[in-house]
Design a protein that fits this description.
five-stranded mixed sheet; 10 strands; about 150 residues; Immunoglobulin-like; about 40% strand; mainly beta; 1 helix
Length: about 150
């Protein structure tokens, strides 16, 4: 009888202590990144006459906080504003209101031949945010903290 009680007691302890082994902690990394079609770069034709949207994404658990992200636009010497492209998103910051997880940066592309010897790219580089979230994907490489569009 004592042996059966001991086995039941030990079995109960093992049963209750193993319940937490399969629980996963909530995913709560908070980061901001930019991509298009899961890539950090894309091309646009020198014959294109289109408006393109490049989204910045907030990856964080649901919150009632507003997050402001600043970024910069770096234009290669081979492109000229209002000839090759026009920045339609004029601000250098994006505001993520509660429940919003992606914000657009829009560029109008104009048909214009390029000089292949020059830097014909526009880089959108995420700089900071007001909540201290990581910029780029988690990890030391900070992938997707910058997005490059090359006019070809």
């Amino acid at each position: 009888m004592k042996k059966n009680m001991l086995f039941l007691f030990i079995g109960g302890l093992l049963l209750f202590s193993s319940c937490s082994l399969e629980e996963n902690p909530p995913y709560d990394l908070k980061f901001i990144h930019i991509m298009k079609d899961e890539a950090s770069s894309t091309t646009v034709s020198s014959k294109a006459n289109t408006v393109s949207t490049y989204n910045v994404y907030l990856s964080a658990p649901a919150s009632q906080e507003t997050v402001t992200v600043t970024y910069e636009i770096i234009v290669g010497e081979g492109l000229t504003e209002n000839v090759d492209y026009k920045l339609l998103t004029k601000e250098t910051s994006l505001v993520f209101l509660p429940g919003i997880y992606d914000m657009p940066i829009r560029i109008q592309w104009y048909p214009n031949p390029i000089d292949p010897e020059k830097d014909n790219s526009i880089k959108i580089r995420l700089l900071t945010n007001d909540k201290g979230y990581s910029i780029g994907l988690p990890g030391p490489d900070k992938n997707q903290s910058e997005f490059t569009i090359t006019k070809i």
